[in-house]
Amino acid sequence: MALVFCFIDLCLMGTALTQSNSVTILGDLLKESTDTLSVLAAFLTVRAVRKSPDYRFAYGVGKLENLVSVSIGVVMVLCALAVTVRAVDQLEEPEAAEGTLFGIVVFGVYACVSFFISMRARAVLRRQPSAIMESQARLWFSKGAFDATMGTGLLVALLFHEHEWSWYVDPLASLVGVAFMLHAAWAMASSSVGDLLDATVEEETQLKIMSELVRHIDDYERIHKVRTRRSGPHMYAEIFLEFDPELRMGEAQRRMDGIAADLRARINGLDVSICPVGSLAD
Hints:
elongated; single chain; Alpha-lytic protease prodomain-like; 8 helices; Alpha-Beta Plaits
């Protein structure tokens, strides 16, 4: 759905640019081109991540999500730099923006569309953590804020076009939009780099794991170590537990299976491996 809306927006903004000399519309067309490529990359990535693991990637290709999220952030930074250069040129030699009415309407409509898609992406994100969906939620919120800001700026410039000060509104509005783009790019990159480095999952999930282990405290003797990491929408936990040395292996396995099943039921997308270990004294 997001990809279809991107292609439609690209066509509409291209039409608006042919009717106007606005740097804001030019900047949005450039931004929309990179956004369309980013959403297309996200779409193809999600399809790739859904495939079952194979002999080369036993844990799947979930980290491809993180790589694409970082790439989207880089593309947005390049786009922001291009818009900034054009806006600075416009500030040095200001001129009244003309033929912007159609562009204002498109900005208004797509601000609503972008916020709607962002909310849908966040709804999916609440059901299952995913770097790509998080980046899409941020991307579309940024697009909505960008379109709302650009549309408002062009509307003010149109209403007061007879005043020379309104000539500066168009490039200044595009610079405000650049700030939104840079903020979204930083958020995308910073949220994905940690997972590429095999950082532990967020503290909230770690607390859920520990609270579940505490609930099963009578099933084992001691917790030796808990290791966690994320790969795309999947989380992996390796839990090393010490059991009573007098316990039969069949009973120990039954307890491990029970702990793992309760952890999976409580934390969606968690893959649990429980490893029995000997005592520290041994």
